[in-house]
Amino acid sequence: MTSWCIRQEPQAIDDDMIQTMIDDMASKGEAGRLQKLEGLPLDEIYEIRFELKKILRIDHLWILPSLTKLGLNNNLIEKIENLDSLVHLKELNLSFNKILKIENLENLHNLEILNLFNNKIDLIENLENQKKLTIFSIGRNNICDRNNILYLRKFRQLKSLNMFENPCALDEDFQIFVATFLPQIDYYEYKRILKEEREQGLAKFMMMLNEVEENEKEENIKIAKKEKELADAALHAGSFVEYLGGSHLFDSMYENDVDGKLFLLFGDEVTELYDEFKEEFVNNCVKLFKFGQEQYVLRQEEIAQYENTVKTAKGEGQRQSIKMMEDFLEKKNEVFEIVKNLGKQLEEKIIDQDEYNEALQEISDSFNNDLHQIWKSSMKFEVTIFGQMEEVNQLFDISLTDLLNNFVEGAQAVFSELRSLQANYNENITEIMTRMVGPKGPNPDADIPPEAEHLFVDKDTLGNALGGTHDIHMQTIDAREDLLIGRARSWLSNIVDNLYENEIKTNRMKILEIKHFLEVQTSEFEELVMIDKELQNENLENNL
């Protein structure tokens, strides 16, 4: 087969190419030969370069998950792709390719250096997750709108920018434009930005800068609000009522409801009806939110009480077990001293061999009996504690299930009320709208906004629109109810299943610990006796 490295046609990165590049990076001499022979673990490769290889497509790099530096410059790459697994990447060089768009970098949160010099990119975009970006080179591309660099204002750690030979960069004042609107960067085209350039830019672009900063304030308020919503959602996720503390559910009903929004254009009567509907709907959501928080506290108290009960019961058992082991180890030390003294008595001929063997057998029987008693006592305790925990777990399961059922029933009652409010609103809005249409179209005296005229061609069209908006609202309510109940049931199931699984694992581990302890004690005693007997045999041989 022809090796990839002598092919002339464009190609994708494959395993053979990667392995060849790894071999090329190996140390010289004997060290390099051994490295190639033994192979370098793929997860220990932190840097690799594929330069001048006529690469058309990026692929297979998922086998190098530890990469921090990747060179793909001077190839034929048209699309950034298949880099998702390189989450540790800090430096990426894609210069001198044929890339049309910045994309598919979402997972590269640690990227600090990005080189896209000499490609065909016309827009700086899709870098929201590269908050650590420090050096960005996108010179010699097709960026025409100088305002596109405003996108980079959000990158607080950006220190160096290169826009060389982009169409927008050919403007005489572009460098001072950059100096003004990107105050965080220190270098443009690898030259330090001068204080004078910033001052010139402020004088020339002050009005535009003020406008940009004002727009950013509004945008930052929206971002802060969104971040707070996400933080609140994370905080309240355990209560299953996230996003229900305000108008989020109500607003989401209208988010994709085009016809429903059009019906709101029909004057004071509709506005009053809508406002009343929204107020009651949101009040019920807030009611559910508060109820969810209260129920969450009750569940947490139940869990804390359970954990305290288990801790107390197991703590007392552990203390008894430790006391039993300590008493045995103390007695074991005494027994070992007796065995050693017995050996000395035999050596000094205070006792004869038969007396020694008889005494040793008696000590051995007593020691083994003590071990057996510990085994019986420990196993009795483990069986008892396992039974107690089983009973405690069953009671906890029942209590937690009751609490969760109370919460679910309360939530279902609120969702039922929300559906009732929606049905009532739909009834009223339908009554208002049907007054405006006759058998052959809109009534002559009906004041219909131009945007909504297509809904009033005839009664069937209007009925379909009203039915459609009602269905959207109902589906939104149902989906949120299903989400709440599903997550609550799943949480309970996981808690209960883990209780029983963990108890069985703990019990088995404890039995293995006891078994291991006893085996060690038996082994140590047998070893002591064996050593003592060997010494006696040596002495006997010496005497002979």
Radius of gyration: 39 Å
**SS field, number of helical segments:** 9
The CA-CA distance between the termini, in Å, is 80 Å
Strand proportion, as a percent range, falls in 5-15%
Widest beta sheet: strand line-up:
2-4-5-6-7-8-9-10
Summarize model confidence as the mean pLDDT.
87
Shape verdict: flat
Total number of strands: 12
What about the largest sheet? 8 strands, mixed
Helical content class: 55-70%
Secondary-structure content class? mainly alpha
Order of helices and strands: EHHEEEEEEEHEEHHHHHEEH
Given as residue ranges, the uncertain stretches (5+ residues, pLDDT < 50) are 1-6
What does this structure look like?
The chain is mainly alpha-helical and 544 residues long. It has a domain at 251-437 and 448-539. 61% of the residues lie in helices and 6% in strands. The protein has 9 helices and 12 strands. An 8-stranded mixed sheet has the order 2-4-5-6-7-8-9-10, with helices on one face. The protein has a two-stranded parallel sheet with strand order 1-3. A two-stranded antiparallel sheet has the order 11-12. The radius of gyration is 39 Å and the shape is flat. It starts with 10 loop residues before the first strand and ends with a helix.
List keywords for this structure.
single chain, 544 residues, mainly alpha, eight-stranded mixed β-sheet, 9 helices, flat, disordered N terminus
What's the layout of helices and strands?
Blueprint (H helix, E strand, L loop, with lengths): L10 E2 L2 H10 L4 H10 L8 E3 L5 E3 L11 E3 L19 E3 L19 E3 L19 E3 L22 E3 L11 H8 L5 E2 L2 E2 L2 H42 L11 H8 L2 H5 L4 H81 L5 H82 L2 E2 L2 E2 L16 H85 L1
Parallel strand pairs: 1-3, 2-4, 4-5, 5-6, 6-7, 7-8, 8-9
Antiparallel strand pairs: 9-10, 11-12
Helix pairs in contact: 3-4, 5-9, 7-8, 7-9, 8-9
Function: Cilium-specific protein required for cilia structures.
Family: Belongs to the DRC3 family.
InterPro entries: Cilia_flagella_integrity, Leu-rich_rpt, LRR_dom_sf
